[in-house]
Each structure stands twice: as structure tokens, then as C-alpha cells.
Amino acid sequence: xxxxxxxxxxxxxxxxxxxxxxxxxxxxxxxxxxxxxxxxxxxxxxxxxxxxxxxxxxxxxxxxxxxxxxxxxxxxxxxxxxxxxxxxxxxxxxxxxxxxxxxxxxxxxxxxxxxxxxxxxxxxxxxxxxxxxxxxxxxxxxxxxxxxxxxxxxxxxxxxxxxxxxxxxxxxxxxxxxxxxxxxxxxxxxxxxxxxxxxxxxxxxxxxxxxxxxxxxxxxxxxxxxxxxxxxxxxxxxxxxxxxxxxxxxxxxxxxxxxxxxxxxxxxxxxxxxxxxxxxxxxxxxxxxxxxxxxxxxxxxx
Length: 302
Description:
This protein has 2 domains: 3-55 and 162-299, no CATH class; 60-157, Alpha-Beta Plaits (2-Layer Sandwich). The chain contains 10 helices and 4 strands; from the N terminus they run ααβαβααβαβαααα. The protein has helices at 3-19, 21-58, 71-83, 95-107, 111-114, 139-147, 160-201, 203-211, 216-256, 269-299; strands at 61-65, 87-93, 128-133, 152-156. The chain has a 4-stranded antiparallel beta sheet with strand order 2-3-1-4, sandwiched between helices. It is elongated and about 100 Å long.
């Protein structure tokens, strides 16, 4: 098509939107609500996953050995631990190191209090390996493997917090999928009705255009433009809103909850917004285009 034909089709698409203000507004609002919820759950799930990932690097497994174990056997177990692909790192703490750390923490380097243990290390059986995993989901299998090794007396680990985060992540993901699916279905229905009304409104004009030689593509293009504009607008509005809300939320959390910053720090908006824009725009424009394309094929017998 020539440039003036493209211009006509684009103007006609916007004209359709203005002629059907109520349906257009309802379609845009529903898409906006759908994408706003998507962006909101996306931000929440991303932060929960980040928290879980941080937990993976800070929650360790501590392995203690039998009191009569030989140092060579401890070193052999350490070698086996370092060879496991699931294990990110393993730090060895000797009994002397454990006692010195204990004295520093609890006696505050007060030599008078520590003199009672001058000839004896009360933590002589506390040599250990502290293990950190690449993926916290491998924790139980690694713990079971450690207990199967000769010389291992005890394995300390905590997976309650990680299991809680994983469960929360699954719940949020499932809930967001259900809500977004329902809103998408409503968006499809409203956009389809909007396009159908516009097609009926311009039916006579389309018949005349067909008689004078207009192609099917030229007749359908204004309705495709209408669907894409509705989808684009429905995606742009919540993106602006979520950007402002997320920035304020991050600032609030960082200022009011300094004590938990070592455990959890919200992901900066700049890190997640590009992906959010891509998915939200693809969702909004894609729904608008696809629904318009199939609706106009049914509504126009051209």
C-alpha cells in the first residue's frame, strides 16, 4: 500500500476507538488491570526468588566428626565434599579455631576468664566443615550423603526458612497465573466486542471500499490498528503505575527496615523493569493484535 493508504488506515483505527468510547475504555481498563497484576506478581515473585537465592548462599550445612576420628580421615572427607558438584564451597574449622572463636565471642578476649581452660580445649570434638550449596534444593540429598560417610557424627542444617520461601513462591505463582488468566479472558471478550461493534458500524463503508477495489488487508488494517492501540495503551498505563509504586516501596523498605537489609534487600527497579516492559508490552499488544485479527475475520465477510 502507498503512504496515504497507510495513513488512512491508521486514522480509521483511531476513529474506531473514538466512536466506541465505552467498549474501548473497558477493554483498555481490563488489559491494564491484567498487566498491572502481572507486573505486581512479577515483582513479588522475583524478589522472593532473590531472597531464596540469597538464603542459598548464607544457609549452610555444618558437619561434625566422631571424637576419635583421625585427621587423615577428616581430610579425606573434606576431599570428597569438595568433589561434589552440588557443593559450592566448604570451609574447614579446626577444634583450636572453634575454641579461639568461642573465646572471642563469649569471653570478649578476657584472658582471666579463659585461664580456667588453659590446659584443655572444651571444644576438642568440634572440628567441622561448613558447606554451602549451589542450589538449596539439593540440601536433603547432601545431608543424607554426609550421614552415610564413616566418621560423621552429626550434620546440622536448617531448611525451614527455605521451604517457606519455596512454598510462598509456588503459591504466589499459582495465584497470579489464575488471576491473570481470568483477566486475559475478560480482555479477549471485551476487545472482541469492541472490534465487532466497530466492524458493524463501518459495514456499509467497507462494502463500498470492496466494490471500488480495496484489498482485504486494507479493510482489515484499521481494526488491527485499533486492537494494537488498545493493547499498547492497556500495557503502558500499568507500567507507569508499577514503576512509581515499586520505587516508593523500595525506598520505604530500605529506610524503615534497615535491620533486615542483610537478609533481604529489594531488587532495584532498573534490574527488573526492562524484562517487565518487554513481557507487558508483548502481552498487551499481542492480545490486542491476535484478538482483532481473528475477530475481524469473523465479522467481515470480505
